Amino acid sequence: MSDADERARLGAFGDEAFEEFVAALWRRAGWRVASADGPPFDAARSEGRRATVLVPMAPSAGEVSAARMRDVVAEREGDASDLTAVSPVGFSVEALDVADAHGVDAVGPDSLLRLVDALDADHLLADPA
Predict the structure, then answer these.
(1) What is the pLDDT of residue 6?
(2) Which end of the chain is more exposed for a tag (fewer CB within 10 A), N or C?
(3) What is the mean pLDDT of residues 19-33?
(4) pLDDT tens digit sequence for 58-117
């Protein structure tokens, strides 16, 4: 599958399917991923050394804006250093500035595709609906 095809598949995910994709990809990378009723997901490395809260950003909303990133930070009452925001579309420069200022890890489409390739997880892109 070409990079353009993979990028198109990422962009074609529905919101719930993207949430499932993110959880499955992190599990494949060796994280334990849990949630009571959908995102955000609590994730921890198998050896328990690092934990994060995965926040899949809805593909239907398009590029993540600074306002949306501020909302995510506010939901954590300003302590967002344990967050990983994941977007199949990407982040505005301003959103990345907000993420950087609050210690949020921002994972966009290029990083997602590198992770898919590194984990030999192309099958997770097979049905983006």
Answers:
(1) 80
(2) C
(3) 88
(4) 877 889 999 999 988 888 775 666 788 999 999 999 999 999 999 899 999 999 999 999
Spatial separation of the C-alpha atoms in residues 126 and 91, rounded to whole Å: 24
> Nearest to residue 54, comparing CAs of 70, 38, 74?
38
Domain ranges of the chain: 3-32+40-120
Per the listing, tokens 């994941």 go with 86
Alpha helices in the chain (DSSP H): 3-12, 15-28, 66-75, 93-102, 109-118
The residues near 30 (Cβ < 8 Å, ≥ 6 apart) are 45, 46
Instruction: Quote the pTM value.
Output: 0.84
CATH of 3-32+40-120, one of 3.40.710.10, 3.30.413.10, 3.40.1350.10, 2.40.50.100: 3.40.1350.10
Q: Which of 112, 84, 115 is nearest to 9 (CA)?
A: 112
| Residue 80 φ/ψ, nearest 5 degrees | -110, 15
